[in-house]
Design a protein that fits this description.
A two-stranded antiparallel ribbon has the order 1-2. The longest helix has 23 residues. It has 14 helices and 2 strands; from the N terminus they run H-H-H-E-E-H-H-H-H-H-H-H-H-H-H-H. With 361 residues, the protein is mainly α. The protein starts with a helix and ends in a 16-residue tail after the last helix. The chain is globular. The chain folds into 2 domains: 179 residues, Leucine-rich Repeat Variant (Alpha Horseshoe); 119 residues, no CATH class. One of its GO terms (cellular component) is nucleus. Its main location: nucleus.
Length: 361
């Protein structure tokens, strides 16, 4: 109905206005004390109780903006306490104390938007495109800035978060794919920086799941465009094992005998994975590939080169592989642009006044 459509347009514009106001606000304490409580109560309840077609993606954007503005990035601290899924590090404040108070609101935000949004977008890869992008942006900001709150989720909800990242990595929308892989990379990084009693259960339950899904999208020719983020995540996972940073097992008791080192388990696990998926490869090729992944995990450029060479050997990647080199082309174009600007700066009049920064005058 025209009246309903008009009211929905007004609601969407109000949400955009709030997002812009919070993003530009200087008095963050006032925003947190006077705006956030009533806003969360009204907006989240409306979003959760609405039918899917009436839920606004702007709600997710507003939540992302609030968390990004009011919460400093989480860093691990030695002080710990146990709550929820596993032990949680107390986050360190690097700014005014009110910039860390959104952590207590995150469980309520996730409770209102997480499952109902996931239920909207997990049926296929096309419906509700705006919700998809905003949903993973929100999850990523929560992981970056409210990591302890993320761990307050129960095991079922936390598994949903991991499943969401892996589901996003298989998405045909590049923005969604990138956000999902980035969040997974940052989540693994956060976990690796905590003590063994915190990281142990996570890596034991989810390391192999994440690894299998990353190899799945890496070797799927439909996901060549995600190569940059796939390689970053894979390099991180091999580095954590190869460098001995993970002291607890990354496998469960039914996957390998007790006492098996993480490195030995990972070698065997990846070897079996590739043998079963690509029978055209010889054992020698696979063994050399795995050895190179371990030895080059701390050098992302060499690691990417090894991955590219391996992928090009596969029948699935026969043909045009230009998308595997997107990052290199973008970097070369950026460097050429910088060099051209430096040349123009040496000759007066080649740059417009609007193209010159104040510190270059």
């Amino acid at each position: 109905m025209p009246k309903v459509r008009g009211l929905r347009t007004i609601k969407k514009e109000i949400l955009k206005l709030i997002s812009t106001y919070v993003d530009k606000a200087d008095d963050l304490e006032m925003v947190h004390e006077r705006l956030v409580p009533d806003l969360l109560q009204a907006v989240l309840l409306d979003y959760q109780n609405n039918v899917p077609d009436a839920r606004e993606a702007e709600v997710l954007n507003v939540m992302t903006t609030i968390i990004k503005k009011l919460q400093v990035r989480w860093t691990p601290n030695r002080s710990r306490h146990s709550v929820g899924l596993i032990a949680i590090p107390l986050f360190t404040h690097h700014a005014n104390i009110f910039q860390g108070l959104m952590t207590k609101d995150v469980p309520g935000i996730l409770g209102a938007v997480f499952e109902c949004t996931l239920d909207m977008i997990n049926k296929d890869f096309s419906e509700y495109p705006e919700h998809r992008v905003e949903f993973f942006k929100l999850l990523r900001e929560i992981n970056l800035r409210c990591f302890p709150a993320l761990l307050q989720l129960d095991q079922r909800q936390f598994k949903f978060v991991i499943d969401s990242c892996m589901w996003a990595s298989k998405h045909d929308n590049r923005l969604v794919e990138g956000e999902g892989l980035n969040m997974c990379y940052e989540l693994v990084q956060n976990m690796s920086e905590t003590d063994a009693e915190i990281s142990g259960p996570f890596f034991q339950n989810f390391y192999t799941t994440i690894l299998q899904d990353v190899f799945f999208v890496l070797t799927d020719s439909d996901h060549k465009a995600g190569f940059k983020y796939q390689s970053m995540l894979l390099a991180q996972m091999f580095y954590l094992v190869g460098s001995g940073k993970l002291n607890s097992p990354i496998y469960t008791s039914d996957m390998a005998p007790a006492g098996t080192s993480n490195r030995e388990f990972l070698q065997n696990f990846v070897g079996n994975l590739l043998v079963n998926a690509f029978p055209n490869l010889t054992p020698a090729q696979i063994q050399k590939f795995i050895t190179d992944l371990f030895s080059q995990a701390d050098d992302i450029n060499r690691f990417k080169l090894t991955l590219r060479d391996f992928l090009i050997q596969l029948k699935e990647f026969a043909g045009d592989n230009a998308e595997l080199f997107i990052e290199d082309r973008e970097k070369a174009a950026q460097e050429a642009k910088v060099q051209e600007r430096e040349r123009a700066m040496k000759v007066g009049g080649l740059l417009k006044p609007s193209e010159i920064d104040d510190d270059e005058l």
